[in-house]
Specification:
Layout (H helix, E strand, L loop, with lengths): L5 H17 L5 H20 L1 E3 L4 E3 L4 E7 L6 E4 L2 E2 L2 E5 L10 E11 L2 E11 L3 E4 L10 E6 L5 E5 L2 E6 L2 E5 L9 E8 L3 E10 L2 E14 L2 E8 L5 E10 L2 E9 L7 E3 L23 E7 L2 E6 L2 E6 L2 E6 L4 E2 L13 E6 L5 E5 L8 E6 L9 E6 L8 E6 L5 E5 L2 E5 L5 E4 L10 E7 L4 E6 L2 E6 L4
Parallel strand pairs: 2-8
Antiparallel strand pairs: 1-3, 3-6, 4-5, 4-7, 7-8, 9-36, 10-11, 11-12, 12-13, 14-15, 15-16, 16-17, 18-19, 19-20, 21-22, 22-23, 23-24, 24-25, 26-27, 27-28, 28-29, 30-31, 31-32, 32-33, 34-35, 35-36
């Protein structure tokens, strides 16, 4: 009597399954035909090409002729179920001026009952648009921008915060009432919370702090979860650094008169109330205005220059001659205050400087140290001819062009080092540029000004 153990039965079933898929029990003719069909299938998956092959940006009403070709004679081509190798697409109208419609179109090649598809993406939007009080903003006097994780836009002003999504502007009520007196000085968002840094509006500058509000999105609106009230110094920037697999909020407080600035990494906002003097020992007492994480390194910018940390250990500080642990920025001390930081794809760190009585402002580029070049290098400062040199914000687009927000115009530095200046004569609401944010998905640049917000489609310029 033949006994089949469970392990042998499992092995036999596995062999039978493999044979069923590969054709062990088929005759030579059947096997050959299956091999030919598999070859055809692979070829069909490779032979279809479409034109245009890259993402396309269109304005409403614009028509675009699409085409598809196949290397295999006899393949039946169609677009969106309409037979034919060519297809004319007309961009639809938009529901509101700043809407961006993302459209996916599919080309199909069918041969011997084998179907191959190829998709292309189209963005439909106006080349530019504006948001202002007529659009629902709290104020045209904008200060900060944040591109949300849900593709919405948060707009900070000198009179509160507006959340713009799907054509609807919603004012987010900040803690402390008297919202008209609150200047939004910083915006940041993680997977759970929206952080809003605030200052009290006294005259033309934010000089006293309301602190930080932390909001959580619940269904259709944001509700306040926690608040930290600063009596004197105000929140100048909020960004996230990585501690292992965790994103940690970094709250930077600028000095105000006798109250020193400080870096906070709060797990609980209640721990940094009043005139907070406790926090991270990294840069205690410094007045800080910008922070950025590049790879495993974190950079801070402030009145004392630029500091570079790796794993919370100070590596170098930039003083204009070299990176070291001492000295003022560019030999000018606090007159060379850093107000903005950005990094391009090559790892270059761009530094935006504040102009003043003894300082010309402009930009500096920093090449951090590497194993091949153990000493970091800097270049600049470069003054911005034809524009202001009080740099408020920096942004880098997908082509590594640097965009510079100044007190008198928007400046673009191309990757080849050529500068161009834009202002009210280029369609901007104002020459007073406050903040910038670049959307890599849509190639849109959002520009906050003293007279509202402008969106430019860099792909359509």
């Amino acid at each position: 009597m033949l006994t089949i153990t469970r392990s042998r039965l499992f092995s036999l079933c596995t062999i039978l399954s493999i044979c069923a898929l590969s054709g062990c029990f088929l005759g030579p003719a059947k096997k050959k035909k299956n091999v030919e069909r598999a070859s055809i299938r692979r070829a069909a998956n490779e032979d279809i090409t479409i034109s245009p092959s890259d993402t396309v940006w269109l304005v409403p009403g614009q028509k675009l002729t699409l085409s598809a070709t196949s290397k295999r004679p006899g393949a039946q081509l169609s677009w969106e179920g309409v037979a034919g190798a060519s297809y004319i697409y007309e961009a639809p109208t938009l529901a509101y001026p700043c809407e961006t419609k993302e459209v996916s179109l599919t080309a199909t090649a069918t041969l011997d009952q084998i179907v191959k598809t190829r998709k292309m993406k189209i963005f439909v939007q106006n080349k530019s648009c504006q948001l202002n009080e007529a659009s629902g903003l709290s104020s045209n006097d904008t200060t900060k921008l944040l591109l949300g994780k849900d593709k919405s836009l948060y707009i900070g002003t000198r009179s509160g915060l507006t959340w713009f999504k799907d054509g609807t502007a919603t004012k987010i009520l900040l803690a402390g009432n008297n919202e008209i007196l609150q200047v939004v000085t910083a915006l940041a968002q993680d997977d759970t919370y929206l952080y809003v840094g605030k200052a009290r509006k006294l005259g033309p500058y934010p000089i006293k702090g309301f602190g930080v509000d932390r909001f959580k999105f619940r269904g259709t609106r944001y509700t306040p979860e926690q608040q930290a009230i600063f009596t004197d110094n105000y929140v100048s920037a909020i960004f996230f650094s990585r501690s292992g697999d965790t994103l940690v909020p970094e709250v930077l407080a600028a000095a105000n008169y006798t109250t020193p600035g400080i870096v906070h990494r709060p797990t609980d906002l209640a721990s940094i109330q009043g005139n907070p003097t406790t926090g991270s020992d990294l840069l205690k007492g410094e007045s800080l205005y910008a922070g950025i994480e590049v790879g495993n390194r974190t950079y801070y910018g402030g009145d004392g220059g630029v500091w570079e940390f790796e794993d919370e250990k100070l590596i170098e500080r930039f003083d204009g001659n070299e990176w070291n642990g001492k000295g003022g920025f560019l030999g000018m001390g606090s007159n060379r205050s850093v107000r903005a930081l950005a990094a391009d794809s090559a790892g270059t760190v761009w530094v935006g400087l504040q102009s003043g009585i003894f300082a010309k402002g402009g930009i500096v580029s920093l090449q951090p140290a590497t194993s091949d070049a153990p000493k970091a290098n800097w270049s600049g400062p470069v003054t911005l001819t034809g524009a202001g040199n009080d740099v408020r914000a920096l942004a880098v687009d997908s082509a590594d062009n640097l965009w510079i927000a100044t007190d008198n115009g928007l400046v673009r530095r191309n990757v080849d080092g050529v500068f161009a200046v834009y202002g009210a004569n280029s369609g901007l609401p104002s020459n007073d540029i406050r903040d910038l944010v670049y959307d890599a998905n849509t190639s849109n640049l959002w520009i906050a000004t003293g007279a509202g917000v402008q969106r430019w489609s860099l792909a359509q310029q």
